[in-house]
């Protein structure tokens, strides 16, 4: 799952046009959140959160992984990889036509070449240099605050408390069922309150019948 998550984001960003690259990049976080919500929804007792049906909930991840593996052979290579790494422009254009339809993709090819030419004169920066760069300070603070808020929001603690609360409620229900006597079945040897005991009748020999 970790490899698929990383490869998915890289492949989508390399295949997406320049104008849609930012929107496509956020699909990873969007579908991760949707997957968590779906898992929480299917995990309640009304659906698959029972002792009899929990294997189906566990196997749901395997079904998604199997679907992903079955569709991978039909996907083309990344156009950027074919053009910039292999230098095969014809294969790049074929991949673009397969992904985005039969039309003229010369503009996309030119944008890839322009990006490659622009990146040749750029050197890699260290983390310390990025922190010292004032032009990137607000972007860096935005990313740090977002990730810190995600880690400190307490979602893991809320999930743990929810599970313990559900277990405690089930235990209390079971104890109440054990302690509460059945109102319909009275104790043995004693008739119900709304039913009279049979009358004692004396027979001819002064014996009780």
From TrEMBL:
GO terms for biological process: D-glucose import; dehydroascorbic acid transport. It is found in: Membrane. The chain crosses the membrane at residues 20-42, 54-75, 138-161. It comes from the Eukaryota. Residues 179-209 are annotated as: Disordered. Gene3D superfamilies: MFS general substrate transporter like domains. GO terms for molecular function: D-glucose transmembrane transporter activity. Keywords: Membrane, Transmembrane, Transmembrane helix. GO terms for cellular component: plasma membrane. It is a multi-pass membrane protein. The keyword Ion transport does not apply. This is (spotted green pufferfish) hypothetical protein.
